[in-house]
Amino acid sequence: MTLYWITVQDINDVPPKFDLEKGVYSVQVPENRVPGKNTGIKLVVIDPDIVNHNDFQIVRGNEEQKFRIDSATGEVLINKELDYDKPVQDRTFTMLVRLSDGANEMAEVFITINVTNINDQQPIFVPDKYNYTVTENTDCDTNFGQVTAIDPDLPAQDDQNITYYLSMNELTNFTIGKDSGTLYIKGCLDREAATRATMYLYPRAMDEGGYGHDAEPATVTLNIADINDNHPYIQSPDNSYTKIMENASPDSLKPITIMLSDWDTEQHGCPCTLSFESTTPADIIQKFSVRASPNYTSQYELRTLKVLDREAQKTYQIPFRTSDREQVSGTRYLTVEVGDENDSPMTDGFSTIKVYNYQGQFPSMVIGTVYVTDLDDYDVGDKTFEIDATTPPEVDTYFDVDLNSGNITMQKGTPEGNYVLRVKVIDKFRNETAIGEVAISVVDLTEEAVMHSGSFKVAGYTAQGILQQQGSVMTGSSLYERLKEEIAKIHNIDTESVDIFTLRDVEGGATVRYNCHNSPFYTAARLNGVMMMYRQQLIGSLGVDISMVNINDCLYEAVAPCGTSSCQQFLRPNITSPLVIGSKTTTMVGVDIAEEYTCDCGALEPPPSVCYSGFCLNGGECIQANNTLSCKCPDNDYGPRCELKSARFEQGYAWYEPLKVCQNASLFMSFDTKEDTGLLLYSGPTVIQPWSDYPRDFIYVALKSWELQVYMDLGTGTISMAIPLEKNTNREFDYSITWNDRDVTFQVLKCLGNSTSDNSPECRKSIPLAGLKSPSHLLNVGAPLQLGGVAAMVSFDQLASSYGWTLVPPMVDPFFGCVLELRHNNYLYDLNATDYDKNTYKPCDAPVPARVIVGKESIVIIVVSLLCLILLVLLILCLARRNKKSVSYPELDGIVKETIGGTDIEGFGEKDMTQYDLKLLRVGPNGYLYNEDGTNSYTNPVYENIVNP
């Protein structure tokens, strides 16, 4: 049988069609999908023919060729960039796809691609320029306009979700509604304080509620309309100052021209008038006259009526009444200095110079000028100066005097010590000679002395004014010396242990930086803390205004150099350019300390690679290996740099350096105690608010009836949280507090024992920071960090009332137990680094000091014992009296005669020639004579039985 195989060849005779079940024909694609990527569309074809040539073609809806089809896979790919925002037609693509196998009827299907929006465009202000007008000192604490921004990513009718804000500098005078864009004035504006009576604001906007893109700032021009609120001022002479020479006849002097002007606009300003103020002293009116210039308006002439003498009075403050065209009047002062002539005699003088030589590294430099007693001030050109021969040679080695100026130069490398420099001064004009004696004290100031320093500001004084001698040079004193005395008093140390080594002029006064050295140097926390406690006492004693303690801009958010970021202050001594501040008789050469700021939490950046003194604490040994430092510490109770980790508190307290100002901060403490109540930590104000912008911030942690409580205020309102602890257990407790600009979180690890997890609701609390009462949420505290309790301070009730706290921390007993570790961020506190503490023992297992505790029961026992002892003594005395035998005294006359020897009875004119011993005449309380060896000849047996009663 023959088999035949018949092969049926396929021809392309069946039309293809789309499989609508297995294919994907509608998708959403984000607008940032890049060309070449798959859209997600999958074209699936049903075609039973084996031989076919399927071809896809987009025949409608793809006019800009945004998409293409891969014929091999049926996938729709992106061909060109998509943009949801422009044009609007790009948001939805409905395309007709045609399928052809080249022989049969074609198949068609619609595919839909919806392009979705992403936030890829920054908001824009519409419009971007605004112009508003307000009236000075009238439109106060009010809104004056509004700015508007839109998000191009969103339809105009949708909520734009824009947040508006201003820069930190602009917040000084303005605020903006964060959701509305409404602009507000804080307080009032002053046209004359603004440049050309115009202020500019540059509002910002951010989409996605403040988490998206920033807009280019808008420009707001604010014109300040004028009101007549200023009286005329003296435009000329410059700075309201002029000079008239002494001894000059009034007729020989040209008049002083006084020109007036007004800061207000012309319609409110000059022509202006000037006259003596009604309160002008009679002495000034007798010496000066003023009249209007005959040829000019708003111009006057000042003349002298008498010959002026500089030695009688050096300057005159002449008060004038000035008025504008609308009679707005006020007082202006003209300073008249009497010029100097060399007309006064010169005599010997004495002055002092104190040099604080930082690390002995000051270069050769002028430290002051030779002083002689001379009422003339500007006659140095008539004098010569040379070191007198009576000056010791070693002084001549280290100090030079300029022949013509009298400037004293200290050579580089001058040793610490006291020197007396005698200088011969010759006045060539008056042919006079005098000796100027200068006592120079050179003190080498160490780095530790600078870094462990306190600071404060004296209002209304210049640095030179603080040094100015009051009274005679021998008996008077300066504010500088009185400050040292008062600082020594509040610290109970000698005045010589106080160094004021920096005086610097600042706006509104002078800043002072000082240290106290009582071996070792007091810490800055102690100096600033004690100064704040005794500030009012010093103000009363010195009669000056100490307007700030602890000079640190990080503490004041309105002027903080880092804005709302972390902030840390560093002291940078200037070695090459010391401060030279002097009066005639007193000069201080101090260290110019630059207060620099970094916007971090003070970590060592980069970590040191070379050992240096102070890297390892508490006597630890520094070890260097592979450019990495480590410390060899006494035992395991120390941290990486030998920080002592533990301390025991027995109802006392200890002061430590304040917490650093950190943007995202955390505080961790480990402790144990057997007591159910005790104050663990407080950092915040200790006195009633001393000045208006003193920080209100504080943090408080206390254990109360086995409940751990936290009170805190970051300037946004007071909050409190509490977590119950496992009671009556001998275990450690670990808690942490974290805070940022959103919330504060408080957590205690296994608060109720091992059965509770760390994140259980009982062990973890969190509170959002509601409201925006201040521009940041940093903990700004300049006062010491107090552990275990608090030193003497006002009550928390008083503090809450003064600083506006809405919750009052409870006043609990000091802590009795151990603090085992304290960390602020990555900074491990050295609990040995305190020099102001009470009932604090370091480390935790330090020996317990011997103590005598007397209670009520002990007092009763002592009283009864004393009564029994008194009764026993009385009984012994009675028995002794009863057993005492009668005493017969021997005939002493013979003994005396035998001892003394013969005497001239007839005239008693000769002295005894026989040597005798008066000890033979001593009689004991029992009536018996003492023997030659000092023992009594009779012993009562009753007393022999009594030993140490």
Automatic annotation (TrEMBL):
Keyword terms of this UniProt record: Calcium, Disulfide bond, EGF-like domain, Membrane, Repeat, Signal, Transmembrane, Transmembrane helix
Q: Which residues form the EGF-like domain?
A: 607-643
Domain Cadherin, chain residue ranges per copy? 21-125, 126-234, 236-347, 364-456
Q: Which organism is it from?
A: Cherax quadricarinatus
Which part of the chain is the Laminin G domain? Answer: 643-844
Q: Name one GO cellular component term.
A: catenin complex
Gene Ontology molecular function: beta-catenin binding; cadherin binding; calcium ion binding
In Swiss-Prot or TrEMBL terms, this protein is called: DE-cadherin
Return the SMART domains for the record.
CA (SM00112), LamG (SM00282)
Which residue windows are transmembrane per the record?
859-880
Which pairs of positions does the record mark as disulfide bonds?
Answer: 633-642
Name the domain of life this protein comes from.
Answer: Eukaryota
What CDD domains does the entry give? Answer: Cadherin_repeat (cd11304), EGF_CA (cd00054), LamG (cd00110)
